[in-house]
Design goal:
- A hairpin with a 2-residue loop joins strand 6 and strand 7.
- The protein has two domains: about 120 residues, Response regulator (Rossmann fold, 3-Layer(aba) Sandwich); about 100 residues, Winged helix-like DNA-binding domain superfamily/Winged helix DNA-binding domain (Arc Repressor Mutant, subunit A, Orthogonal Bundle), CATH 1.10.10.
- The chain is about 45% helix and about 20% strand.
- Strands 2-1-3-4-5 form a five-stranded parallel β-sheet, sandwiched between helices.
- It contains eight helices and twelve strands.
- The chain is globular and about 55 Å long.
- The termini are far apart.
- It is an alpha/beta fold and about 230 residues long.
Length: about 230
């Protein structure tokens, strides 16, 4: 089996080396770059199962790199950043990042988060290779093999986490999910430390699938509990 390829984008050479050396020890194949422009060139010429991305980068900043990555596909992106304010996290998650780790960080936590993201990404990819499954709800059609979603026949591009959230709701149309349940199922972690993680992804998903995100047709908020799919 080919090694999992990870792209590390970090302009601090010491942190870049630390992350790269640690992930090499874990058996991954690593490419590392030190600025945003080089990261975009790598993404054009190679395929990666994950990107670890700093935000404050020379030449092209991390937010722009993240937006470009999302144009290419659903590759999991873990942000590493010294910008640890809540608004910075909301922006990063809102642009399509799958996880956000503030500096300084422990290398053990980084490794655990990388493994959790890869575990989910590879599992969903392998499930898609095994079978084609079409899920429908109202005018939403989801192909779990090709990761394609159409709303009223119009293709809609979703990030990996947005796709997983929508798939979960569509697979359990009558179930109400709490924020903690969504975090455990979609992010693969037991405890929800920051409700904004789930809320931002739900908001971004609604912005893509709802004509009126403030008056959702598909994903209903159950106040004080969580979210569920609006029944047909």
């Amino acid at each position: 089996m080919d090694k999992i390829r990870i792209l590390v984008v970090e302009d601090d050479k010491e942190i870049n080396r630390l992350v790269t050396d640690n992930l090499l020890k874990e058996g991954y194949s690593i490419d590392n770059v030190y600025d945003g422009a080089a990261a975009l060139e790598k993404m054009k010429s190679g395929y990666y199962q994950m990107v670890i991305l700093d935000i404050m980068l020379p030449r092209v900043d991390g937010y722009e790199v993240l937006q470009k990555i999302r144009e290419y596909g659903n590759t999991p992106v873990l942000i590493l950043s010294a910008k640890c304010q809540e608004t910075d996290k909301i922006i990063g998650l809102g642009l399509g990042a799958d996880d956000y780790l503030s500096k300084p960080f422990g290398i053990g936590e980084l490794t655990a988060r990388v493994k959790a993201q890869l575990r989910r990404y590879l599992r969903f990819s392998s499930e898609g290779e095994k079978k084609t499954e079409i899920i429908k709800h109202l005018d939403i059609v989801m192909d779990t093999c090709t990761y394609e979603v159409t709303i009223g026949g119009i293709p809609t591009a979703l990030t990996a986490k947005e796709f997983e959230l929508l798939k979960l709701f569509m697979s359990h149309p009558k179930k109400v999910f709490t924020k903690n349940q969504l975090f455990r199922i979609i992010w693969g972690e037991e405890f929800l430390k920051d409700e904004n993680t789930v809320m931002v992804h739900i908001r971004r998903l609604r912005e893509k699938i709802e004509k009126e995100p403030s008056n959702p047709k598909y994903i209903q908020t159950i106040w004080g509990i969580g979210y569920k799919l609006v029944e047909e």
